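Can you give me the bound-state structure? Components:
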Amino acid sequence: MSTQPLRELLERAFPDATELDVLDRTGGGDHFQVVVTAPSLGGLSLVEQHRRVYEALATPLADGTIHELRIKTKGSA
Amino acid sequence: MSYSDKIKNVIDGSDVALFMKGTPSFVMCGNSGRALEALRRAGAPVTAVDILPDPEIRQDLSAISGWPTIPQVFVKGELVGGADIVEELEQSGELEAKLREKLGDGYAAARSEETVSLA
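Here's the bound-state model for the whole set.
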């Protein structure tokens, strides 16, 4: 899978994101790193912030499209 | 006893529980290794559980924690996160602070590593 469908899922989940990045870490289309910075994540623990990302990507996580996911989130603008 | 009960026993009964792919002496996944190394750097006493022997272990664990990926780290029953969070907290010093808060100042002196088999 290319990074674009994942990016779209994240953009829908975090419309206020000031930073949103999806990297294919290995070029194989299944090991991804996502970076999300959004005010809507502010005040949440890292566990809760990562949960929001998992929820946004629930489908590609469940169907095995994403084999490995690294997440970096920030709650500020 | 079901896997769920055994998993809950480990989560609630361990100072630091690490659910991982493989064991500390034979790590089967890079992310599990990253979490283990971060915990080691922080001097954490680790109780490790290999989730690979039976797919049901992982399913039951994720149902309990609401966390979809492996590894998963718990301190005194509380989900701290996966490899990314544990690494980030270790680098910022927050992991040590949390361990000190939950386990007491001398936690690193009691440093230990054990592996629990659920299967």
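A couple of observations. The domain at 3-74 of chain A is CATH 3.30.300.90 (GMP Synthetase; Chain A, domain 3). The helical segments of chain A are 3-13, 46-56, 58-62.
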